Amino acid sequence: MSLRFLLTQVALLIALMATAGGAHAQTALDLTGRTLLHSAQSARGSADASMTAVRLAAPPDVRIEADASGQPAVDVFVRLESAAAASEAIAAGLVLQTMAGDVAVGRVSIADLGAVAEAAGVRSVSVSRVTQTRLLFNDAARADTRVDAVYAGTGLPRAYSGTGVVVGVVDSGIDYDHPAFIPAGGNPGLVRLLELLPNGPGQPGGQREFTAAEIAARTVTEIDPNGHGTHVAGTAVGGVAPSNARYRGVAPGAELVAVKGDRAGTAASGGFGNADVIAAIQYVFDYAASRGFPAVVNLSLGGHSGPHDGTSDYERALDNLTGAGRIIVASAGNEGTMTFHAGYASAVGTVYETIFNTTINPVATADPNTNKPLELYGYAPAGAIAFVRPKLYATDPTGGLTLIGRPATATAVSADGTNVSGTILDLATGQTVLATFTVTTARDPNTGDTGLQVAFGSANNDLTAAANRAFGLETSGSAGGPGGR
User: Are 142 and 244 contacting, i.e. CB atoms less than 8 angstroms apart?
Assistant: First the structure.
C-alpha cells in the first residue's frame, strides 16, 4: 500500500465525526461505510473524481463498483428490526439482492449510505468485504476421514453416498465438462450452474444460470480459470462414474449445484463479495427446496475481516439461512501458522494487555493476502472497557519485548459509539510518529455488549510484514485508564 493511501485514510478518519448525517447514521453505519461516505462527500466534481476518491479511501478488501449513473457504489448488509423494514431501506437507496432473515443484502450508492443508515427500522449497515481462495491438492482425504466406511455402511444402518441430497459449492467456478461431474452410474453429477458476472463500467454485474439440459448439451460458456472451484467440487461430489471410483469425492450420489461467485469472468480470481456469497447460498437452498431435498453448501473461502465470533452482520445472515435441512460448511483455513488472531476475556476494573507479534516467516510475508493493515476486533460487556492505549514494541530473537512507542494519553471509549484516530509516538522523543491507529466502538443492538475495533497503520500500511515489531493493546475499565510499562 502507498503512503498516499495511508495519509488519505488518516485524514478521512479524523474528519469522520464531521460527516453529514444524523446521530443514528453515525452509529448505525460501520467504520468502513463512514470512511467511504466521507470520501464521496469530500470529492468535488465529476463521477470519475468521486470514484477516484472513494477507491483511494477504500480498504483493500472492499470492492467499489459503479451504479447506473457512474457514481461509486458498494455491497452492504443491512440489519433490520424486522424483515418488514426492508421497504424503508429500499426507499432510501438500497438495491435489494436477497433477504437473510432480518438482514437485507444488496448494493447502495455510497452517497446514499447515510440515508439508508437513517431509515426507519435499520439497526446497522456494514460494508461487504472480499475474501480469496487458495489452491490445495486433494490427496487420500477419503481414507483420512473414513468416508469409505460410510460408503460401505460400516457401523451404520445402511450405506450412504449422497443420494437425495443437494451439495452446493460457492467458489471460483467449475470445469463443467470434466468427467468427474458428468452423470453416470445413476449419479446425477452437475445439475445447476450459476455464474455471477463481472461488473462493468456503469453496469452492475448480473448473473447467468445454466440448467441440467444446457450442461448436458455442452452449451455452457462459464469457465474456471483458477481451478480452485473445480478442485473443491471434485472433493465434494466428483467421480460420479464407476470408472472414476478411485478419485471420487465424498458424496458422488448427490446433486451438485455450483456457483461461480468471484465475478472474475476469465481472470484467475476476483475475490468473493460477502453479499454475493449470501445470495449464492440462497440460490442453492432455493433449488434444493424445489427438489424437496436437504442441502449443504460448502464455502472454501478465506477472509480475516470481522470478529469471527458470529456477531457481524455477515455471520448473522449466514446463521439466518441455516435450519433443518440447510447446512453451511466453511473451511477451517490454511493459515494456522500466521499471526492473524488473538483474544482475551475482559472484566470491569481490570487492566489487560495483549501482544500481537507481526514478525512472520518469509513465506507468509510474501503472501499478498497479508499486505493489509492490522485490525483487531473484540467484544466486552458494556462498561468493561473505558480506556484503551495501543502500543508498539521492538522484538528480539529470544522473544523479548521492548516498549518503543505509545500514544501520549489513553483513549477514552464509549459503549454507545467511539471513532477516534491517533498516533503512536516514539517513547524516546515523544514526538516522532511510529504508527497510526483508529479505535471504533459500537453497542451490539442485540446483546448490549461493546464491540471494539482497532486498526493500525504505518508508513507502508503493511504491518503484517513489519520485521521485529509487535503491537500491544492495553484496555482498562478503571477511571484512570491504562497505565504504561
Answer: no
